[in-house]
Amino acid sequence: MNDPTDRMKLNRRRMLGAVALPLVARPAAATTPVSIPAVTIGKFQITRLVAGYNPIGGYSHAVPKLSAIMRDWFTPQRTLDYALSCERNGINTWQISVDQRVFGAIRAARERGSKLQIICLMRDEEPATWKEIVDLKPIAVVHHGGVTDRFYYRGEQGKVRDFVKKAHDFGLMAGVSSHVPEHIARLEDAGWEQDLYMTCLYNVVREAAALKAGLGDVPVDELFLSRDPERMTEVIRQVRRPCLAFKVFAAGRLCNNQASMEKALRYVYQRIKPGDGLIVGMFPILTDEIAMNTGMVRQILAES
Fold it and tell me: What is the pTM of this model?
Protein backbone atom coordinates (compact mmCIF):
# COMPACT_ATOMS: atom_id res chain seq x y z
CA MET A 1 0.00 0.00 0.00
CA ASN A 2 2.28 2.78 -1.30
CA ASP A 3 -0.47 5.18 -2.39
CA PRO A 4 -0.65 8.01 0.19
CA THR A 5 -4.41 8.28 -0.41
CA ASP A 6 -4.88 4.61 0.49
CA ARG A 7 -2.80 5.07 3.65
CA MET A 8 -4.91 8.06 4.66
CA LYS A 9 -8.12 6.07 4.15
CA LEU A 10 -6.76 3.18 6.24
CA ASN A 11 -5.69 5.50 9.08
CA ARG A 12 -9.10 7.18 9.05
CA ARG A 13 -10.84 3.80 9.26
CA ARG A 14 -8.57 2.77 12.14
CA MET A 15 -9.28 6.02 13.98
CA LEU A 16 -13.04 5.72 13.54
CA GLY A 17 -12.91 2.08 14.56
CA ALA A 18 -11.09 2.98 17.76
CA VAL A 19 -13.65 5.63 18.62
CA ALA A 20 -16.49 3.27 17.83
CA LEU A 21 -15.37 0.63 20.31
CA PRO A 22 -17.62 0.67 23.37
CA LEU A 23 -15.66 1.62 26.44
CA VAL A 24 -18.27 0.26 28.84
CA ALA A 25 -17.96 -3.44 29.62
CA ARG A 26 -20.78 -5.78 28.64
CA PRO A 27 -21.37 -8.14 31.55
CA ALA A 28 -23.79 -11.00 31.12
CA ALA A 29 -25.64 -9.95 34.25
CA ALA A 30 -25.59 -7.22 36.86
CA THR A 31 -22.92 -7.78 39.49
CA THR A 32 -22.79 -6.79 43.14
CA PRO A 33 -22.21 -3.02 43.13
CA VAL A 34 -19.89 -0.97 45.27
CA SER A 35 -22.25 1.00 47.47
CA ILE A 36 -22.88 4.74 47.24
CA PRO A 37 -24.67 6.42 50.17
CA ALA A 38 -28.42 6.66 49.62
CA VAL A 39 -31.30 8.87 50.70
CA THR A 40 -34.94 8.01 51.23
CA ILE A 41 -37.52 9.50 48.86
CA GLY A 42 -40.98 8.18 49.52
CA LYS A 43 -40.52 4.50 50.26
CA PHE A 44 -37.44 4.16 48.07
CA GLN A 45 -33.72 4.27 48.76
CA ILE A 46 -32.00 6.33 46.05
CA THR A 47 -28.24 6.67 45.75
CA ARG A 48 -27.05 10.26 46.11
CA LEU A 49 -25.64 9.96 42.61
CA VAL A 50 -28.29 9.18 40.00
CA ALA A 51 -27.37 8.36 36.39
CA GLY A 52 -28.61 10.94 33.91
CA TYR A 53 -30.06 10.69 30.42
CA ASN A 54 -29.11 13.74 28.34
CA PRO A 55 -26.06 12.35 26.49
CA ILE A 56 -28.12 9.35 25.36
CA GLY A 57 -30.71 11.61 23.78
CA GLY A 58 -28.07 13.87 22.29
CA TYR A 59 -28.83 16.84 24.53
CA SER A 60 -25.29 18.20 24.85
CA HIS A 61 -26.33 21.79 25.60
CA ALA A 62 -23.24 22.69 23.58
CA VAL A 63 -23.06 22.43 19.78
CA PRO A 64 -25.12 20.40 17.26
CA LYS A 65 -22.16 18.24 16.19
CA LEU A 66 -21.54 17.04 19.74
CA SER A 67 -25.25 16.32 20.16
CA ALA A 68 -25.20 14.26 16.95
CA ILE A 69 -22.12 12.32 18.09
CA MET A 70 -23.82 11.51 21.39
CA ARG A 71 -27.00 10.27 19.70
CA ASP A 72 -25.06 8.13 17.22
CA TRP A 73 -22.74 6.64 19.83
CA PHE A 74 -25.50 5.55 22.19
CA THR A 75 -26.77 2.60 20.21
CA PRO A 76 -29.29 0.28 21.91
CA GLN A 77 -26.41 -1.97 23.01
CA ARG A 78 -24.35 0.88 24.43
CA THR A 79 -27.41 2.24 26.20
CA LEU A 80 -27.79 -1.15 27.88
CA ASP A 81 -24.05 -1.16 28.67
CA TYR A 82 -24.44 2.25 30.27
CA ALA A 83 -27.23 1.07 32.56
CA LEU A 84 -25.39 -2.06 33.64
CA SER A 85 -22.13 -0.19 34.20
CA CYS A 86 -23.86 2.43 36.34
CA GLU A 87 -25.38 -0.30 38.49
CA ARG A 88 -22.10 -2.19 38.69
CA ASN A 89 -20.44 0.99 39.97
CA GLY A 90 -22.96 1.44 42.76
CA ILE A 91 -25.67 3.66 41.25
CA ASN A 92 -29.15 2.26 41.92
CA THR A 93 -31.33 4.80 40.06
CA TRP A 94 -31.40 6.04 36.47
CA GLN A 95 -33.18 9.22 35.44
CA ILE A 96 -34.52 8.62 31.94
CA SER A 97 -36.69 10.37 29.38
CA VAL A 98 -39.23 9.06 26.89
CA ASP A 99 -36.90 7.20 24.52
CA GLN A 100 -37.46 3.75 23.02
CA ARG A 101 -33.73 2.90 23.20
CA VAL A 102 -33.86 3.51 26.93
CA PHE A 103 -37.09 1.58 27.37
CA GLY A 104 -35.50 -1.36 25.54
CA ALA A 105 -32.36 -1.12 27.66
CA ILE A 106 -34.40 -1.19 30.87
CA ARG A 107 -36.25 -4.31 29.78
CA ALA A 108 -33.03 -6.01 28.68
CA ALA A 109 -31.23 -5.07 31.90
CA ARG A 110 -34.04 -6.48 34.00
CA GLU A 111 -33.92 -9.70 32.01
CA ARG A 112 -30.30 -9.93 33.15
CA GLY A 113 -31.27 -9.48 36.78
CA SER A 114 -30.78 -5.71 37.10
CA LYS A 115 -32.52 -3.99 40.01
CA LEU A 116 -31.87 -0.48 38.65
CA GLN A 117 -34.69 1.90 39.59
CA ILE A 118 -35.91 4.50 37.13
CA ILE A 119 -37.26 8.04 37.37
CA CYS A 120 -38.86 9.25 34.15
CA LEU A 121 -38.68 12.91 33.11
CA MET A 122 -41.63 13.61 30.83
CA ARG A 123 -44.31 15.95 29.58
CA ASP A 124 -47.99 15.15 29.95
CA GLU A 125 -47.81 12.49 27.26
CA GLU A 126 -50.47 10.63 25.29
CA PRO A 127 -52.34 7.84 27.12
CA ALA A 128 -50.42 5.13 25.26
CA THR A 129 -47.10 6.63 26.36
CA TRP A 130 -48.27 6.92 29.96
CA LYS A 131 -49.23 3.23 29.87
CA GLU A 132 -45.83 2.22 28.50
CA ILE A 133 -44.06 4.23 31.17
CA VAL A 134 -46.23 2.88 33.98
CA ASP A 135 -45.57 -0.66 32.73
CA LEU A 136 -41.84 -0.03 33.25
CA LYS A 137 -42.60 0.51 36.95
CA PRO A 138 -40.74 3.77 37.56
CA ILE A 139 -40.40 4.89 41.15
CA ALA A 140 -41.42 8.41 40.06
CA VAL A 141 -42.26 10.55 37.05
CA VAL A 142 -41.14 14.18 36.89
CA HIS A 143 -42.63 17.04 34.90
CA HIS A 144 -40.11 18.27 32.30
CA GLY A 145 -38.28 21.39 33.48
CA GLY A 146 -38.39 23.33 30.23
CA VAL A 147 -42.14 22.80 30.03
CA THR A 148 -42.58 23.74 33.69
CA ASP A 149 -40.77 27.01 33.14
CA ARG A 150 -42.72 27.86 29.98
CA PHE A 151 -45.97 27.26 31.85
CA TYR A 152 -44.85 29.60 34.63
CA TYR A 153 -43.80 32.31 32.21
CA ARG A 154 -47.25 32.06 30.57
CA GLY A 155 -49.17 31.93 33.83
CA GLU A 156 -50.29 28.35 33.11
CA GLN A 157 -48.68 26.65 36.12
CA GLY A 158 -51.94 24.91 36.94
CA LYS A 159 -51.02 22.42 34.20
CA VAL A 160 -48.06 21.33 36.30
CA ARG A 161 -50.35 20.49 39.20
CA ASP A 162 -52.58 18.54 36.82
CA PHE A 163 -49.54 16.43 35.91
CA VAL A 164 -48.75 15.78 39.58
CA LYS A 165 -52.33 14.65 40.22
CA LYS A 166 -52.27 12.41 37.15
CA ALA A 167 -49.06 10.72 38.27
CA HIS A 168 -50.58 10.06 41.69
CA ASP A 169 -53.67 8.59 40.01
CA PHE A 170 -51.31 6.05 38.42
CA GLY A 171 -49.87 5.25 41.85
CA LEU A 172 -46.51 6.93 41.15
CA MET A 173 -44.52 9.51 43.03
CA ALA A 174 -44.65 12.83 41.19
CA GLY A 175 -41.85 15.33 40.81
CA VAL A 176 -41.45 18.70 39.15
CA SER A 177 -38.31 19.90 37.39
CA SER A 178 -37.29 23.51 36.82
CA HIS A 179 -34.28 25.59 35.83
CA VAL A 180 -35.50 28.66 37.72
CA PRO A 181 -35.01 28.98 41.50
CA GLU A 182 -38.04 31.23 41.85
CA HIS A 183 -40.25 28.62 40.21
CA ILE A 184 -39.13 25.97 42.70
CA ALA A 185 -39.84 28.37 45.58
CA ARG A 186 -43.31 29.15 44.21
CA LEU A 187 -44.06 25.45 43.76
CA GLU A 188 -43.13 24.82 47.38
CA ASP A 189 -45.17 27.75 48.66
CA ALA A 190 -48.22 26.67 46.64
CA GLY A 191 -48.73 23.66 48.90
CA TRP A 192 -49.20 21.26 46.00
CA GLU A 193 -48.79 17.49 46.24
CA GLN A 194 -45.45 16.94 44.47
CA ASP A 195 -43.09 14.48 46.16
CA LEU A 196 -39.72 15.75 44.91
CA TYR A 197 -37.98 18.28 42.67
CA MET A 198 -35.38 18.08 39.94
CA THR A 199 -33.45 21.33 40.20
CA CYS A 200 -31.16 22.59 37.43
CA LEU A 201 -28.09 24.35 38.78
CA TYR A 202 -27.98 26.69 35.77
CA ASN A 203 -30.89 28.82 34.60
CA VAL A 204 -30.66 28.27 30.84
CA VAL A 205 -34.24 29.38 30.15
CA ARG A 206 -34.05 33.06 31.00
CA GLU A 207 -36.41 35.11 28.87
CA ALA A 208 -34.77 37.08 26.08
CA ALA A 209 -36.43 40.34 27.13
CA ALA A 210 -35.04 40.05 30.66
CA LEU A 211 -31.56 39.27 29.36
CA LYS A 212 -31.60 42.21 26.99
CA ALA A 213 -32.76 44.51 29.77
CA GLY A 214 -29.95 43.35 32.04
CA LEU A 215 -27.13 42.87 29.53
CA GLY A 216 -28.10 45.16 26.71
CA ASP A 217 -27.81 42.13 24.42
CA VAL A 218 -28.84 38.49 24.14
CA PRO A 219 -26.55 35.42 23.97
CA VAL A 220 -26.20 33.35 20.83
CA ASP A 221 -27.23 30.23 22.74
CA GLU A 222 -27.82 29.09 26.31
CA LEU A 223 -26.28 31.24 29.00
CA PHE A 224 -24.38 29.60 31.90
CA LEU A 225 -23.70 32.07 34.72
CA SER A 226 -21.14 31.28 37.41
CA ARG A 227 -23.39 32.23 40.35
CA ASP A 228 -26.41 30.23 39.19
CA PRO A 229 -25.51 27.18 41.35
CA GLU A 230 -25.37 29.46 44.40
CA ARG A 231 -28.86 30.78 43.65
CA MET A 232 -30.42 27.35 43.07
CA THR A 233 -28.75 25.62 46.02
CA GLU A 234 -30.00 28.39 48.32
CA VAL A 235 -33.56 27.48 47.31
CA ILE A 236 -32.81 23.75 47.54
CA ARG A 237 -31.86 24.19 51.19
CA GLN A 238 -35.07 26.08 51.92
CA VAL A 239 -37.61 23.63 50.47
CA ARG A 240 -38.64 20.70 52.61
CA ARG A 241 -39.06 18.20 49.78
CA PRO A 242 -36.05 16.24 48.49
CA CYS A 243 -34.24 17.62 45.47
CA LEU A 244 -32.16 15.98 42.76
CA ALA A 245 -29.83 18.65 41.38
CA PHE A 246 -28.59 18.38 37.81
CA LYS A 247 -26.15 20.04 35.39
CA VAL A 248 -23.51 19.80 38.09
CA PHE A 249 -20.74 20.19 35.48
CA ALA A 250 -22.52 22.96 33.54
CA ALA A 251 -23.11 20.55 30.63
CA GLY A 252 -19.40 19.72 30.39
CA ARG A 253 -18.08 23.25 30.84
CA LEU A 254 -16.52 22.30 34.19
CA CYS A 255 -14.98 19.07 32.92
CA ASN A 256 -11.54 20.49 32.11
CA ASN A 257 -9.91 17.87 34.33
CA GLN A 258 -10.75 15.60 37.23
CA ALA A 259 -9.84 18.28 39.77
CA SER A 260 -12.38 20.72 38.33
CA MET A 261 -15.03 18.01 38.29
CA GLU A 262 -14.33 17.04 41.90
CA LYS A 263 -14.54 20.71 42.89
CA ALA A 264 -17.97 21.04 41.23
CA LEU A 265 -19.29 17.88 42.89
CA ARG A 266 -17.96 18.87 46.30
CA TYR A 267 -19.46 22.36 46.04
CA VAL A 268 -22.96 21.07 45.34
CA TYR A 269 -22.93 18.29 47.93
CA GLN A 270 -21.86 20.80 50.56
CA ARG A 271 -24.71 23.17 49.68
CA ILE A 272 -27.68 20.80 49.37
CA LYS A 273 -29.63 19.05 52.12
CA PRO A 274 -28.47 15.68 53.50
CA GLY A 275 -31.60 14.13 51.97
CA ASP A 276 -30.86 15.41 48.45
CA GLY A 277 -28.89 13.93 45.57
CA LEU A 278 -27.34 14.71 42.20
CA ILE A 279 -28.13 13.57 38.66
CA VAL A 280 -25.14 13.32 36.31
CA GLY A 281 -25.33 12.31 32.67
CA MET A 282 -22.21 10.50 31.49
CA PHE A 283 -20.69 9.95 28.04
CA PRO A 284 -18.02 7.22 28.32
CA ILE A 285 -16.71 7.50 24.77
CA LEU A 286 -13.11 8.36 25.68
CA THR A 287 -12.78 7.55 29.38
CA ASP A 288 -14.76 5.51 31.90
CA GLU A 289 -16.67 8.49 33.27
CA ILE A 290 -18.99 6.22 35.21
CA ALA A 291 -16.20 4.68 37.31
CA MET A 292 -14.50 8.07 37.69
CA ASN A 293 -17.62 9.93 38.83
CA THR A 294 -18.80 7.25 41.22
CA GLY A 295 -15.30 7.06 42.71
CA MET A 296 -15.21 10.81 43.31
CA VAL A 297 -18.70 10.79 44.83
CA ARG A 298 -17.88 7.96 47.24
CA GLN A 299 -14.78 9.81 48.40
CA ILE A 300 -16.57 13.16 48.82
CA LEU A 301 -19.49 11.65 50.73
CA ALA A 302 -17.17 9.60 52.93
CA GLU A 303 -15.43 12.81 53.97
CA SER A 304 -18.62 14.73 54.73
Answer: 0.88
